[in-house]
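wait is this the right file?? whatever heres the structure
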């Protein structure tokens, strides 16, 4: 089997607080192949963004990695020096952060910002920089005349696409996107998702897409990772998880979103709130909110059990996994 592009094993991240460390990412594993689109979903505060920051080596105190490895093309990013990481970022993998439309330098034109990114990763002539900047803007549907524009002269959707264009300047193998559509309206969200997917198929890069909206990635991602309280509770092919969700939390997320087709059904939602990670509940972390809770859920912490093509962190599948 060929080596995966990204291989995360046993990754844990803690935030140091006055009351002691709080484990925000707990023993997470994921594997991403070249050209694959993986979505990471879950409620706010479940650890999605912290996971992506850890993968990209962008954590700052009080956050720290307490265990595990992040292998990108076989190299462990966790043990890599900051200098070596800086050489990889943007060139081999890039990151589009949440509210990326506000991450552009307000006092520099797009051309100047693209020039800085390319100049930091090799020697390029002015003609090469201009040609590549023009090319990536056209890829995301922006007229290259806007290379002379400042961020405030662009709409929110254009700024978001301009950031994605910057992430593609050096043709990376992996693009990590942390809720890049969160500040856009639903029409702009859909348009941007279609564009991201088309670019991925055209250029062949892999994508890790973080969102709290499961419906947003239903037709775009190949693999789905569902997180709850710092843990992966379900993972598998996207269509499998959508058609046959194995974990009660995944089912709850799907039932919380209305469908624009088919008969009208009441939205159920998920009662309660996510747990305090400084004092998570014993046993299954979802049991205080689970409609299928059993006695053993209060004391026994479930592992990730294989359920067909997917894996689910639910004791309902313990017997099935033991066969």
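ok assuming it is, sequence goes like this
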């Amino acid at each position: 089997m060929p080596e995966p592009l990204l291989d995360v094993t046993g990754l844990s991240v803690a935030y140091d607080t006055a009351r002691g460390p709080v484990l925000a990412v707990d023993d997470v594993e994921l594997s991403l192949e070249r050209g694959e689109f993986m979505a990471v979903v879950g409620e706010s505060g479940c650890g999605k963004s912290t996971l992506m920051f850890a993968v990209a080596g962008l954590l700052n105190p009080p956050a720290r990695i307490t265990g595990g490895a992040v292998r990108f093309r076989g190299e462990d990013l966790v043990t890599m020096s900051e200098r070596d990481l800086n050489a990889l970022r943007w060139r081999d993998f890039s990151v589009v952060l949440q509210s990326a439309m506000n991450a552009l330098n307000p006092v520099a034109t797009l051309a100047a910002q693209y020039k800085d990114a390319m100049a930091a990763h090799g020697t390029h002539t002015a003609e090469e920089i201009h040609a590549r900047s023009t090319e990536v803007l056209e890829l995301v549907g922006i007229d290259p005349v806007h290379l002379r524009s400042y961020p405030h002269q662009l709409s929110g959707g254009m700024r978001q696409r301009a950031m994605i264009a910057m992430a593609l300047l050096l043709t990376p193998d992996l693009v990590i996107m942390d809720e890049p559509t969160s500040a856009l309206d639903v029409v702009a969200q859909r348009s941007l998702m279609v564009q991201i997917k088309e670019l991925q198929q055209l250029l062949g890069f892999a994508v890790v897409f973080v969102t709290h909206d499961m419906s947003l990635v239903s037709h775009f991602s190949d693999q789905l990772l569902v997180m709850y309280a710092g843990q992966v509770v379900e993972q598998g092919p996207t269509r499998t998880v959508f058609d046959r969700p194995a974990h009660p939390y995944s089912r709850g997320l799907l039932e919380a979103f209305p469908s624009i087709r088919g008969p009208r059904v009441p939205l159920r939602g998920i009662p309660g709130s996510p747990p305090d990670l400084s004092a998570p509940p014993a046993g299954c972390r979802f049991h205080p909110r689970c409609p299928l809770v059993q006695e053993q859920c209060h004391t026994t912490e479930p592992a990730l059990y294989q359920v067909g093509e997917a894996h689910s962190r639910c004791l309902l599948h313990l017997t099935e996994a033991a066969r």
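The first strand starts at residue 6 and ends at 17. so i think its the right one actually
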